[in-house]
Amino acid sequence: MSATVVVGTQWGDEGKGKFTDLFARDADMVVRYQGGHNAGHTLVVDDQSFKLQLVPSGILYPHIVPVIGNGVVVDPRVLISELDMLESRDIDTSKLRISGNAHLILPYHQELDKLTERRLGKNKVGTTKRGIGPAYADKAARVGLRVQDLLDPSIFREKLDVVLKEKNSMFAKVFNQLPLNADVIAAEYLEGCAPRLAPMIGDTVNLVHEFLEDGRNVLLEGAQATFLDLDHGTYPFVTSSNPIAGGACVGAGIGPRYIDRVVGIAKAYTTRVGAGPFPTELHDEIGDALIDIGHEYGTNTGRRRRTGWFDAVMLRHAVRLNSLSEVALTKLDVFDTFESIKVCTAYELEGETYTRLPYHQSVLHKVTPVYTEFPGWKCDISGVTSRADLPAEAEAYVAFLEQQIGVPIGPVGVGPGRDQWLDFRA
Fold first, then answer.
1. Average pLDDT of the chain, as a whole number
2. Annotated active-site residue in 13, 113, 138, 149
3. Least packed by Cβ within 10 Å: which of 112, 212, 235, 413?
4. Annotated active-site residue in 37, 41, 109, 232
5. Contact 269, 344 (CB under 8 A)
């Protein structure tokens, strides 16, 4: 029995999809354990680009059983659209299984997400307005509807009527908005979505355990990343679930003793979307170059990402929070034309040096990064397939990152393609 967790170590968009796809070659099942369609994973296979939101990355392998776990919040309309896209491109989706305990995103969640962000104005969190936070809030408040409710129309409608009465009252009194129609929502979900998804809905906890007990390999795939974690991220500029490795146990329904490998995905630089502290953020032509060369725009939203140098202080903390066994590094090739590259190794504020992440966010907002600078390699590494063939400057850069974060760096991405990577340990 063996389970591997793949987790983002920064603020998301590290390229988890590429390496989840790589690790899936040796897996029998891939389980998405949290988040919703606010996450976007891009996979490039044979020059074809696949943009996934809810479906686990392993869907592209015919031997994989892809699972949407109980910790995910699901908009069935988005899921069906994604399944249609995959099937139109000759990808078999019949093996997909969806936890009956996963919670549903409903139209009032998305409406509330948009209205709340608008009301917050300059203090907005910067959500994707997909209804993720409100759906998780209803889950915690015990008024959520679950995927299994799609299979029982009377229960679905009873629960919907109760919660929509409250939501419509809020829309009218707080936001001066017209009410949503329960008949329209029920018809869309029960008649439009339920028949298509019903064959895929089931008890995924038992399914995952059957695979583990049979000695098969299970890959647990997180969305978002460590510093967007609800408990451990840069709150309140976070997501509404727990992307860290510990969240995999809850979101998939397994105990920690099954997990024997935790792979952290890190970009060779740092990006984030939306508001929140960002000590190494660049507001100059270098930051613009990272955006242009790295194509740093959101997979789902198209939003321009904020960019900055690699932050080793953050990564050390991510190593601890996730008990990382190794790190996979992405987008090293983005630096191919750079004259020099910097790495943040510590922070400074009012005469104090921080080599560990400050717990108080007011400090994190004010710190100045301490950098170590490296020469660039000024050549194309997109075709490199072994450490021995890396330019000396590129090898030195990755070796320094490895020394700074305290765990081995294994796979290193040198391009977007499925096979554009090398093993730094080889």
1. 93
2. 13
3. 235
4. 41
5. no
